[in-house]
Amino acid sequence: MTKTSRFDGVFTALVTPFTATGAIDWPAFDALIDRQLAAGIAGLVPVGTTGEAATLTEAEALALITHTVTRVAGRAYVLAGTGSNVTAKSVAATQRATEAGVDGVLLITPYYNKPSQAGLIAHFAAIAQSTPVDIMLYSVPGRTGVAIAPETAAILAKDHGNIVGIKEAGGDVARVSALRAACGPGFVVHCGDDGLALPFFALGSSGLTSVVSNFAPAACVALYAAWRAGDPKLALARHEALAPLAAAMFIESSPSPVKRALAAAGHMQDFVRLPLVQLPKETDALLMAEIKRFNQRLAIFA
User: Fold this and answer.
1) CB 51: neighbour CB atoms within 10 A?
2) For residues 244 and 293, is the Cβ–Cβ distance under 8 A?
3) To 10 degrees, the CA torsion angle through 240, 187, 44, 173?
4) Residue 196: CB partners within 8 Å, gap ≥ 6?
5) Which of 165, 109, 177 is nearest to 141 (CA)?
6) CA–CA separation, 302 vs 300, rounded Å?
7) E strands, the chain, where?
8) 27 exposed, middle or buried (CB, 10 Å; 0-12, 13-18, 19+)?
9) What does the pLDDT profile of the chain (302 residues) look like in tens digits?
10) Does residue 292 carry a catalytic annotation?
């Protein structure tokens, strides 16, 4: 499997492990990163939605980003979440991440404000002008209330050489074609929905930014590898083995389910920050049952 882009492959949207007191669990975070690298994950995304960025202090966010850069030591691409709904804060966070040595930053659309497309262009342009590193836009209207129009992405990519791609998490595979038509095939489209990875790949997506890969990194890499190797039958079989697990990981607001899965496997403690809570008993039982079924299907990923 030959890489043609630094964005090819599976990126993991890292969870942020916490202790019982609410502090960052640094040993668990190190172990999480090491497990990702050992599985062949191509990129790591600290301080994104899955990392509970909205509940982190600026100091915690920077510490997590800096720690990731140091721990990875060039062995994978580091794409730090630095977006917010305040442009000035996004610029400052992006500059801090740039100084910490990240390869790129992931910029979510401003939430709550619900800016127009013109507002999005001005917001992302201001951030792009503040840093030389790669910028990946992040369209997730289910979380923010606003999507990045393909034409908006095209304007931004044309005007700013460091705006190089988008994480598309709107649940619509047709967006891949629309984005490629508007922005050109050189513009990176990353799938932001685990369950849609294979159809995204088929339509020209470069890779997947995954929640599930926190728990099953090798399986997610194996799915991508089968597609890139030109084996659609095997890729489909691996997709069908992963899809029920991917659905279960979003049975409640993420990252509560994936953190529960990681805790059950002994990788970290099961703590999220309010307003998120741990899974209720009924949902927990459904997740554990699906994990058991997934473990019975592991042979397909070998």
Assistant:
1) 26
2) yes
3) -30
4) 171, 173
5) 109
6) 6
7) 9-13, 43-45, 77-81, 104-108, 134-139, 163-168, 188-191, 207-210
8) exposed
9) 445 689 999 999 999 999 999 999 999 999 999 999 999 999 999 999 999 999 999 999 999 999 999 999 999 999 999 999 999 999 999 999 999 999 999 999 999 999 999 999 999 999 999 999 999 999 999 999 999 999 999 999 999 999 999 999 999 999 999 999 999 999 999 999 999 999 999 999 999 999 999 999 999 999 999 999 999 999 999 999 999 999 999 999 999 999 999 999 999 999 999 999 999 999 999 999 999 999 999 999 99
10) no
pTM of the model: 0.96
Domain boundaries, the chain: 9-229
Question: In 3-state terms, what secondary structure has residue 300?
Answer: helix
Establish whether 138 is a catalytic residue: yes
d(CA 21, CA 23): 6
CATH number listed for the domain at residues 9-229: 3.20.20.70
Of the residues 167, 224, 259, 292, which is catalytic? 167
Of 3, 77, 138, 259, which one is the catalytic site residue? 138
